[in-house]
Design brief:
Radius of gyration: 32 Å
Shape: elongated
Oligomer: single chain
Number of domains: 1
Distance between the termini: 87 Å
Order of helices and strands: HEEEHEEEHEEEEEE
Length: 234
């Protein structure tokens, strides 16, 4: 009986010693040598942009945004078509702007005034402004657009500041301030500038833009333009 007790004590002591040494072996480990190897990679740029005009009525593709023939006295008018936009970019910070570029050279302000966004008439000096709203998906939009405070004016790349007014209405100012942006983002996200927001996350990187024409002060004429979309990074 005494031998068994001593053996038990001896085994317990050995087990305690083993555990103690194991613990000391871990805590007292000393790095004798160290070295390292670097890791590098170069990732190329990847960008994509496509736009497609579609019917509001059935989402079918059309060749252009066409307001059709309008009666005299028409004021604000929602186009029967919207533009579907698909965008992607792996730049750290990118922006997507929407605009017109109606003149190859700076126009005469005596004839054309100071703001040129929208559609240009066939007669010199005739222009009708346009506005836009962007959404992550198709939605109901009022026709005619009545509360223009919820819409953004379509800018032209030749716009200049209107003398004697408070804000700077030039293209340069609008571009630098982000007023012309319909979306922005980074390598793994897209933010759509919906009305009244600074941007809403768009998971599928596909969104829509509705446009309205401001015909109330426009002269009888045939109007047209090309709506441009620029995906750029700073």
């Amino acid at each position: 009986m005494k031998m068994r007790t001593m053996k038990t004590i001896w085994l317990s002591g050995m087990l305690t010693l083993v555990l103690l040494l194991a613990g000391l072996g871990t805590s007292l480990a000393v790095v004798d040598e160290t070295d390292s190897v670097s890791a590098t990679a170069t990732l190329g740029a990847s960008t994509s942009l496509s736009v497609q005009a579609k019917k509001i009525s059935d989402n079918g593709n059309v060749a252009s945004v066409d307001f059709g023939s309008l009666s005299g006295g028409t004021g604000n008018k929602l186009a029967p078509h919207y533009v579907e936009v698909q965008v992607d970019s792996n730049y750290g910070a990118w922006e997507l702007e929407m605009y017109t570029d109606n003149f190859t050279a700076q126009p005469d302000t005596t004839t054309w005034g100071f703001q040129y966004g929208g559609m240009k008439g066939s007669t010199a000096g005739n222009r009708t402004g346009m506005v836009w709203q962007a959404y992550r998906a198709t939605t109901g939009v009022s026709d005619p657009p009545v509360a223009l405070t919820d819409w953004t004016y379509l800018k032209d790349k030749k716009d200049v500041d209107i003398p004697g007014t408070g804000p700077d209405e030039s293209w340069t100012s609008a571009h630098n301030d982000g007023y012309t942006n319909i979306a922005y983002g980074g390598p793994d996200y897209v933010m759509v500038v919906e009305p009244g927001t600074t941007g809403e996350l768009d998971s599928d990187k596909t969104f829509v833009t509705y446009v309205g024409g401001l015909f109330g002060s426009a002269a009888s004429d045939s109007y047209s333009t090309v709506i441009g979309f620029d995906l750029y990074h700073e």
